[in-house]
Design goal:
A hairpin with a 5-residue loop joins strand 1 and strand 2. The protein is built from 3 helices and 11 strands. The protein starts with a strand and ends with a strand. It is mainly β. An 8-stranded antiparallel sheet has the order 1-2-9-6-11-5-4-3, with no helix packed on it. A 3-stranded antiparallel sheet has the order 8-7-10, with no helix packed on it.
Length: 180
Amino acid sequence: MRHKKVTTSSGRFIDIYDDVFPPHLYQHHIGFAQKSNYKLGSASNENVQWQRDKTFFQCIFSEEDFNNFRFFNDELVGKLKDYEIKRCWIVASSPLSTYYYHTDGSDPGITLLYYVNTRWNKEWGGETLFTNDEGECEIAVEYRSNRVVIFDSLIEHKASPISMEADEFRFIFVIQLKPK
């Protein structure tokens, strides 16, 4: 697993991990994502507004779903030992999905994004964009297969648009964690 740490100009951290899972496990993850039951969802801060341009497909995980997804490896568990899961889900995005800058709540914590797709053409977009405390976009994290991004939940972020040429959904597994 390779690691790169990025810090916003406001001093907030973003940790990027590549090649997190062995091929058989991330194949399991994409199969799980493709077979999950999705419903219309809204912003990750639970401020639900059912407007067509502010919704996307999501599958909220139960504890059983989380266990069956088989997400954690030893290195990730060690990095998250001071946190407990608040909630988790998978988001399925398409070129018709629209995202807005948001934080993941108002309480301190961290958010973990796992880029689930086993195949993604960088020309399709879908990067995760992060702002500094003044709301200025300054970091773009490319959507890459088998990548995990962990960041301060108070950083404003959003997914960038996906190209109409994308021939599959963009699956992101999201875990919001709070300090123990």
